Protein 1
Amino acid sequence: MTERAGHLAEAPLTSPQKMLWAGQQMAPNSPLYNMAWLVELEGSPDTETVRRAFDGLCRSRDALRLVIRTSDAEPAQYDSGQPAGRFGAVDVEDDAAARHWAEQRIGRGFDLSRETFEAACLRTRSGDCLFYFCQHHIFTDAWSGRVLLEDLAARIAALRTGREPEPASAAQFLPRALEPRPIPDAVRDHWSAVKRNAVALPRLYGQSGEPGESAAAVVRIPLGSERSEKLSQLVTQDRFAALSRHQAAFNVYATALLAWMHRVSGQERLSLGTVTHGRHAATDLDVAGCMVELFPLAAALDPDETFASLHAKVAETGMDLLRNAAPGASTAGLQGGFNVVLNHITASFADVSGIGRADWLDNGHSDPRHAVRLNVSDYGESAGGELKWLFNASTFDAPRREAAQLHFLRLLDRFLDDPDARIGSVDLADGDDQSVRLTRRQAEIRAEAASPVQDVLDAFAKHLADDPDAPVIAGDGGDLDRKGLAARSDAIAAALAYAGVGQGDLVGLHLTRSPDLVAAMLGALKRGAVFVPFDPQQPAQRLDRIAEEARPALVLSEAALAERWAPAARRLDLADIAPRTAGTPSEGSACDRAYVIFTSGSTGTPKGVVVGRAALSRYAHWAAREFSPVPRARWALHSATGFDLTITSIFAPLVAGGQIRSYREPADGPDLSVLRVFEEDAVDVVKLTPAHLALVTETPRRLENIRSLVLGGEELTTALAGRAQAAFGRDVDIWNEYGPTEAVVGCMSHRFDPVSDTGRAVPIGRPAAATAIYLLDAGGNPAPDEVPAELFVGGIERLADGYFRNSEATDEVFLPDPFAPSRRIYRTGDLGSVARDGTLRYHGRLDTQLKLRGVRIEPAEIVAAAMAHPDVGSCVIRMNAPRKSIAHCTRCGVGTDTPGIEIDDTGVCTTCSGFDSFRERASEYFGDLGAFAGIVKDRARFRRGDYDCLMLLSGGKDSSYALCRLAEVTPRILAATLDNGFISEGAKENIRRVTADLGIEHRFLSTPAMNEIFVDSLKRHANVCNGCFKTIYTLGLKLARDEGIPLIVTGLSRGQMFETRLTRELFETRARNPDEIDDMVLAARRAYHRYPDTASQRLNGNLFDDDRIFDEVTFADFYRYCDVPVSEVYRYLDEKMSWIRPVDTGRSTNCLINDAGIHVHKTERGFHNYAVPYSWDVRMGHKTLEEAQTELDDEIDEAHVRSILDEIGYEIRRPDAEDSELICYYTGEAGPGDVRRHLAKCLPREMIPEHFVHLSRVPLTANGKIDDARLPAPARGGGEEANADFVAPATRTERRLAEIWGEVLNRANIGTADNYLEIGGDSIGAIQIAARCRAAGLAISPIDIFRHQTLQALAAFADGAAAPREAAKQVRASVDPDNLKKLAALLGKPKS
Amino acid sequence: MHETIREFIEADLVLEREITADEPLLLSGMIDSLGVMRIVAFLEASFGIKIPASDLKISNFGTLNAIAAYVAKRTAA
């Protein structure tokens, strides 16, 4: 403590200072926050004068004396009473040498506990005096620089005229830190809302938003007088005017920058960081110190956004920003929401007397979280403005920097020239961009198409002539040589002709994979017909739909399939076609169409894609050349016949003289033929989907024959390709083939290279022969390198003819080729980008990309990250669709909108089928009225007053009936009703009538805290009943004790009993008898009353100080001993009592606030809170299904509900309409928590799925694609996955660390597996933890907490660090520096 | 009203300097956009009006006279 003596004052860091402090901790040795100026002092003052002036400056300005203390938990600043830096004098040759010297010095780091600046007087040989001043940003900013240098110059001027400068009177910084201005609530609310709507960091030029190193590259672009003038002109227009030229110019730059971010990332919602000087009052103007603050400015771009319309949004949002830019209001969370910063600098030194040329020096670094920082120096029309870009060097290499500034200027210039131009219309790419080159390869395409391609039939005929005895088909269904296949296909062609199939007619192929399937395809082509596969694995219904669309002249089928589907069209069994000898001339092949393959259309109706003979032939020859590892390769025919992926495995070998090995699909069950293909290993090439590949990769094996894997149909990730390469060895080529059915199977390919393919997905490579590939942005312009845009495919004989009998759909996507007017292009709807080396990358579908909170999420990216986990086998990401259709249990009526409810194939819900398993045992819990009477009599022995029991009467039918029956047992009853302020008059009347009928005394209970309890209940449970029930029980217990009543009787229904206490687990052990269950219920009751909610806090008093009350007063649930249907209850009350069904609540309950509770529950939780108890009532036979449904289907008067909620003071929390959730399905050994933590390490927060569902196998469709319909819904809550991973701290260090984490993060139960970032830790917290650790004797620095994120790892590190230093070094060295960047990225991210 | 606004600006934004009714406050750079927002907050609190972003123009805030006229118009409505 002695070192504090003499300090004038100490203050915590201000909010902006804290962020700089944390940023510096993350990059301990980087000079990223060094702010330095080199200025020419006019009149060449002598060094001694400058020194004296500077000493005076230090005395006058506390910012030059402040240092930072870090010994306590939180860093603090205090006035050291002396200059916190040194003043040096240096002789240099000339200006250039001075600059060189300064640029060297600026890289020095400061130890902020004693040094925060460096000043130097540089004297050139010619006698000029230059002043160098470098200060850590934590005590300065650009404004302060000017304040200090202006003050210095004035002091020098005074000294030179022989005067002593004015004594210190300048405004000080420390008092502002000591007493920060309070932040108004409205401002806080504004920024909280901004943070809640935070957007994802844009991937500029496809680069991840993750921070890199702090090293930054500076690119300076003079603004030019022409631009300056145009800008001045523009802002004279009323719509671009603002409060000042500065603000008007800022709005223009911000608009252009957002437009740029949009165009080079494809993201529509964007946020950029803007710098405000933070000097709100006149008294702030002369302060030296860090006042500057960063605030986000967000905008959402519409598809047709113009510069002017975006400008209007920016101007409006900018006003909001300024209104709310209160000092200290910007938080780390807000600042994590952008990776692009715009700083519009207006202050210059030009007008400072005594200072000549002034340079703000670059330190070569920038905040690593900012990929791009644009400093616009714009001093108005006179001086030459400048755009100074600071590009993060690890994100923006030189070509990217060049592209970035060029693209920005193109957008800015278009804005200045034509503000009403669409932002999407600006052509950004130029001749150096690969996409432009792609549009220019027309001659190449023509040349590739010029060499003639043999028709598939001619090619096969040629091979037949060369060697008729060569085998061509083997495997399931028998072997055929070429002449055999020719004969069989001729026979089929003849049979088709005989059957009246004409040229161009459609022939359906309802056939299993076999030689006959191949022969039928050839036979159809030989006949001049068009074949249409009818995949026998597809459900009959779908085949019917296809048949309805296709209307085939005839369907070729086989006997074994006759049972499965009977086509409406004429059917011809292949077995009935007689064999014919080879060489019989076919009857011609004049038709230029080959096949129609039906794909699932987005409307639900299958869409037939018509492919011509020429296009099929061109594709088959290319595929055979491209993918065959050997001449005459053998291909496996194992995939679904209705899927165009399979076309390759048949026609590539046919045109190349190779062989087909067929693997017949099973009669039923999943088609896992691909497994057999790899077990047998009897072919050279296998074409398969990535889902197939994931399946076969699970069994690594040495492959003797298979040398080439061709992946198609879905995106191939590098993780999976890499795993496959490892599983099968480097000798196997893994080809990624891209192509929609409309572009004839495949139009691009890329051979996977595990060394150079390091991106998320394997590239889709380069165009196939004679194929045109264009990458065009929304404006139809070729996209710049690395920027995602839509893929278009064209070429010569490379596209399908169009959609079958649907010219409208055809015209929508088959468009004139803008670069080759005589041809067509197909609009794929796929997003791609082109790398600088010319290879294309696939980024998913434009239309199926998930949008979460307005941000595009690429599921493939999450998949790739998950697959990088060694124990994740495969992974599927889905967004839970809004619950469109709700299925209801046929037995109890509960719907799938209720969490945890699933309906099985027989229409029965999980609860009903579960109840079947313990119904028997549960029945033991219930008794009869005799037992009930026994209990009442037994308890009556302990009566201390007038009553045997207290009946809790709601006035509804159930409790009224119970009271009547109770009166048969004893007359000494006190009935009590909670008057919660919303009891209906009808119910009150009923209560009075029934108790009068029975001659029973009755009381209303009430509490002034009722509304408070309702609000608490709505907040906790989204209903009013929980609060009401607890109030009834508590007040009931009080009344019973006061009146000496030994028993409370409730009218709880059996459904409510099951809903609230009789869980399945209670009955799972046979040993549990009803007494044991009662004990457990009692234990639960004790805990229930002591749970600290509002009801307990307001009502308990000393009632539950000990457990005596539970002995004095016991409970009996009437319906435990009485099984009666609701119809009997009504009949009894109607006949015997003057009870009248209530009308004023709209249902047969008695409480008017109930509607409000139901409405809140439905709105906030998405389902009816009575659904579960009513389903139990049905299950127990108390209600019929119809009765329950009727009661649940009641309409709610929203206006009335709103008035009730207003009255009690509750605001409904409407779930964000966009607030969908991501679900991660995966296979493998990893636990859900493992996967979650793994993803948290490599993905931004908004991409971490909310749910993790483990599957033993991913369900696949017949085509080998993922079968969405069979993916299970995730369980709600996800509690078990969080708790399942809890491991209690074990070692001394772990326990101590857990305590410290708990204190700082304000969390209980920290386990060793908990990850610092995941449980809400940030950098300030890390600094506090490190300080407390040091106090506890644990050697941990803030950065260690980010390097060793789990408690266990940190504890291990701390224990290791206590060992010799060498060991500690090794631990550090083993940390992957990349990981650290990712962590830093997470740090600033908004928390969900 | 004139005087209230003048006092606020002189005391809080331009550090005890006297401003005249027609002196350009914004175009001269005397008060920047953050400063205008302080004026806006002050006017909203003092005169019980809500100033929409669309009203934030030089014609309404360029001089002391303009501000006073704007406030008069808004409070009269």
Protein 2
Amino acid sequence: MLQARNITVTLGRAEVLHDIAFDAAPGQLTAICGPNGSGKTTLLRAMTGDLPHDGRITLNGAGLETRAPWELAAIRGVLPQASALAFPFTVLEVVEIGLSRGRSGGDPEAAMQALARVDLDHYATRPYQALSGGEQQRAQLARVLAQVAAPVAEDGPRWLFLDEPVSALDIAHQLDVMQIARDFADAGGGVVAVMHDLNLTAMFADRVALLAGGHVLAAGPAAEVMTSETLSRAYGCRLRVGAAPPPGTPFLLPQAAARAAD
Amino acid sequence: MVALTDPAPGARRAAAPPSRLARARRLHLWLALLMIAVALTSLTVGATGVQLWDVARSLARGEELSRMERVVLFDIRLPRLVLGLAVGAALAVSGAVMQGLFRNPLADPGIVGVSAGAGLGAILAIVLGGLLPPALLGLAGGHLVPLAAFLGGWASTLLLYRVATRRGHTSVATMLLAGIALAALAGAVSGVLVYMADDNQLRDLTFWGLGSLAGASWGKLAAALPIMLIAIAGAGLIGRGLNALALGEATAAHIGIPVQRMKRLAILCVAGATGAAVAVSGGIGFVGIVVPHLLRLGSGPDHRALLINSALLGAALLVVADMISRVVVAPAELPIGIVTAVLGAPVFLWILLRQRGVVDL
């Protein structure tokens, strides 16, 4: 269980998150959505321990501040939005760096498996810096997957924190990566993902927290949060949510959108 | 939902390629052999005609060494060799650690202001040392300049660290910029002191500023060697952490590295190694940039091997530079900093040209 209570974050002089409560359960994919500047990434970074914040965050029953970095690394992996690499490491070496504190201890097989999972095993010996943006994002995902190894271990579920995991990907790899996250949740792990693409969110997320202006506007099962009215209010433009005939997945047509002011 | 992932990803997986780390670790042995070969050669080269080979032959025959042979070998060449090895290793490792810490292949203690601080300390001691009360002078003995250089390097590192650290978080960018400011300030103060200096002091300043191993003695070694060795060994502990830091501070923490603690250790190591090296040998430049860069080209950037290889190659390189400095204008000698600058500056420019667009501060 991931529980965040009374989370307030101040960057410089501006308070960007106001007294937020957020929950995520293992076995589920929880998406954080909202317009630009609504505090999605800030909330994620507070929950991964990167930002000083007021309030209390517990992961698997223990406060974040009570765990050493290597203890946290064993139970959760974090995929940042963008990653610059300072030295000419190969793709495989980047994935292996993720293993440096893990239990498999730099096992090249574990790293190669993770690379195969994101469809990059044939690029293992290439310099990371020579990959495209989307490929780099997938290589980083492989690093995170290698770090947490299995969705569940004896001492509890493992967690993935993904900050816009599909922002740089083509549609086939968007679906691929979301399916990896989905599989991780279905196998008992917890996934928290900051998402921009509302259709992918509707397809893959169990629960959605919708942020606007540093507040949680709505949180709950995806189908309940992703309604025309709530989304229109959050994004400040008229949106109409439809449902695709067969499985009843909600979807929306940007063609139906219009500025709120219109 | 459509089946989007390969049902058996393992089936078509490529085999794990040979690891660059293993190759880089095999390099330890070759570099160690190189260092030993260079060291033995260096013992035979010098202004006097004493040859290592002759000495070894006399020893094998059980003959006593002549007094001259003993003095040249054990009191002049050996301390100088040990100092060269230690300073070379310390400077190269400091460079590698700084580059890892700042995530920039052009970082160097010379750039971050550690050397500038140490240099300021030395200049203060040379120019104003005479104003100290004689009792204090007696206490420092002949070590006033090295001592002041060491303290200057240490103080400037601490100052930079304080400026760049807020709420337990050290900003590398702030530290880099503060280092530039500190170097400029140290340069200005040094300028004033140089202006005030008399002719004798000026010659001291010039010679010290260019760097030299000529003052090597067992006494100096006893003071500086332990600090350098401890700092180099400490740097050996943070190879993994520096690898993770290449992905950024946040990611290094997510991987499980105690980032703040590691950075503190890295800064201590750099201050110790650079401060002690500058204290006994003056301003020897470019070793810290050239050595790690060549090694990264040859055997990859993995710090677990890079730091050890840097120590070995740095030691060998500085001893070679010292031999050149003794031979070129024999029986006089060039300051070694001139030799390393002539060897190193083109390499530095070459890095810049090769990495234009990749290197961004």
Protein 3
Amino acid sequence: MQNAIQFLSGLLLLFVSWVSSASPINVVATTGMIGDLVHEIGQDKVKLSTLMETGVDPHLYKATHGDMRRLQQADLIFYNGLHLEGKMQSILTKMARFKPVFAVSEKLSKASLIHYGSVSDPHIWFDVSLWQQAATQVLSKLVEMDAANQGAYRANAQRYQQQLSSLHQWVQMQIEGLPKSKRVLITAHDAFGYFGRAYGMEVHGLQGISTVSEFGLHDIQQLKQLIVERKIPAVFVESSVPKKFLRALVAGVADSGHELTIGGELYSDAMGLKGTPAGTYIGMVKHNVTTIVSALKRGEAE
Amino acid sequence: MMSDIWILATACLVASSCALVGVFLVLRRQSLLGDAISHSVLLGIVLSYLMMDGRSEIAMMVGAVIMGLLTAWLAEWLQKHPLLKSDVSIGMIFTSFFALGVVLISVYAGQIDLDQECVLYGEIAFVPFDTVIWGGESMGPRAFWLALVVFLVNVSVIAVVFERYRLMAFHPVLAVALGVSVPMWHTLLMAQVSLTTVASFDAVGAILVVALLVIPASSAYLVATSLKTMLVWALGYAQLSVLLGYGLAVWLDSAIAASIAVMAGVLLLATILFQQLIQKQSQKASLASEAH
């Protein structure tokens, strides 16, 4: 009897230690981009859930009952910060009092951000070099939380950082391939400020930073004038923003005799479907840049 | 488990407040006031942002409550115009307030993310995460305490001035003849509406509040025989909507607030169908007895 109990408790101990060593840490990411970053660095060492899945505009995200559970069971939570998550951010900062919750934008220097008055532009992922800093932040928090697997995390992060570095250079080269006068990017909302600054493109959005705000007539007039004067061949729609406003702009410009096309769909606030090329961060950036460059070059050939 | 209880408790309190206030709104044909306030608060938020130059949550709450009161009060005032009905006056006020808010944003604050959705409206799923910490101990969610205070205020106000409210709801002319100061009690009711809606927006988001102001009170209106029983029925419908809606949200992994609002609608529909069924049966019965 005694032996049996000893044997059973020994088994139990073994089981407990096996469970605690094998069960990966639960990580929750708010956006698909951050989820991809955690996936690249954590690989099979983390169990990842992403709250805002494909195609969801972060401004319009509604939490489900399961999201509450996932946040509750998380060992580590990453969010974008800079008010991308809206009111949810104030909840996340409050959760930080009793749970490890970190903004991937936390360590970015003030000078590296684009400011509008007292508020910063949250779309940092379109400057690949800023996203590399976000990756560093994710790595350091994963290592802090789960030191046992730090070797794996560091190796994954190093490999991924190299990929990001070459992506950064690739984007630079692509944009440099465009004639200077053609480096104008017009999109549905102001998501590409960091992209423009990092790679030397002039950026104009029909809507403001938030997809909820509306645009003034004056803005449209100015935009039309700019397009006609500078003979801009294409504007771009975004996957997570309704397309009708940009279509209206194209029709309006056509009336004044200048041919303007919709150059394609860019991924801005959300990535593409899982399993498609644009379903990863790198794939999304590549898709955007290829779409932009080929549409703007098309105008060049004519 | 604990967080489910906190969410349910908060939702039940919010639902009760909304149902109680909603009864008077439904009786006075002003049930869309909640929806109106959910839009006109934008102007309050923008104004407080422009005046305080920053996103102070408390300043924006205060701005929202003031704007809610102003909406309710102006709607009441316009209604006195002989040619403007109550739906017109409510519709006019909140659309112009909302529009003015949008104009101000596009002129002064076009570059920032400022709207009621991301500044004021809470998310009921995140209620358990925003706790009050007092003396190092977690005292439960902030939204729960807010909802409790609002509920107690509503219950005590209604208990104290029940007779006045009843007179105002059913016999406004008689009330004036009896020398009851109708405008004063109107203002008190509107203050209750404004406080309840804005505080509940902050705790659980907008859809739920708008739905709970209208639907449980309407269901209760179908079955109740007096103001007192209508209040009780409204409370009952509200609690049942919360429980069934939460069950639906767990089952489907859907948005909690929307699921509760959906169940409130389903209960209203079920009540109507049930009543029609009863009516048909009694008609049949009376026809049968006539045939004999």
